[in-house]
Amino acid sequence: MNKHYFGILMVLISAISMGTLPIFSLYAYQGNASVHTVLFLRFSIAAIILFVYSAITIDKAVITRSYLLSVLVIGGLIYTIQSNLYLSSFKYIPASLASLFFYSYPIFVAFLSILVEKEKFGRKMAAAIIISLLGLTLVLGTSLQSLNIMGVLLALGTGLVYSIYIIMSKHALQNASPALTSAFVSFFAASSLLILGLFNGTLQFTFSSSAWWPILGTSFFATVIGILALYKGIELLGSTRASVLSMVEPLATIAFATVLFHEHLGLIQLAGGLLVLLGAIGVNISNSNLTVEPRSQEDDSKPLKNTY
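The structure assignment produced for this chain is given below.
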């Protein structure tokens, strides 16, 4: 398969996998598992799976201090801040509205890519982002009345921090495979959550045994598959295009909720979903407006790391 289309496939698989996170989490909460506990177990189990996978595939990446520092910051700091901002925004604005503002992150990624990655950003890319954001507004069915400024700032801050996560992940992938990078990010995220949980007493393991299967679901589908596929997509497509394609994630969540919780979409939400997909397609049609860093001739003589 063409690398470009394989990258698109990887990002879509990532979006669908990560779209299961709210569904699995709801089932875990029904088993009396706390948010912090679910997050800690999610990343702990994922780290074990990913390290084993890296060992089996004989990942011979050279682990440097700068690389370890990078994944420490990505997993232990960036993700922790992003999670806390996102959860805190729910105290001030509806979760659907917070999700809408969070999915403004492709805009932040685009501008950061222009400044840091020297990527080109044309009118077609801008139009695609606007179309996708308009579609998300319709899908989530949000009301822009009586907005709480604190909630809006927290949700927008979530998107900004996540855009930094996307950019930093792309640089980390230059030194190791997606699997090994994902393993380190998950390990440091779990370590950070463990420290915070012990400090504020939010970790508890007295939940029902029925909560274990959804917790395993968050680890395998929403984390292992989701992160691996996303990193592979970033590696093949670049951070901007991958982030815009990831905007189909809420659609996956809504689809799962419709099937499992018998929620029904209205015509306006269906129209919004179509706009999200059209925007994502538009990003990938306009190849001339967004360049991915070319591999040098020297790099072309080397095998790709851990391709699958």
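Interim note for the steering committee: Residues 287-308 have pLDDT under 50 and may be disordered. The chain has one domain: 3-292.
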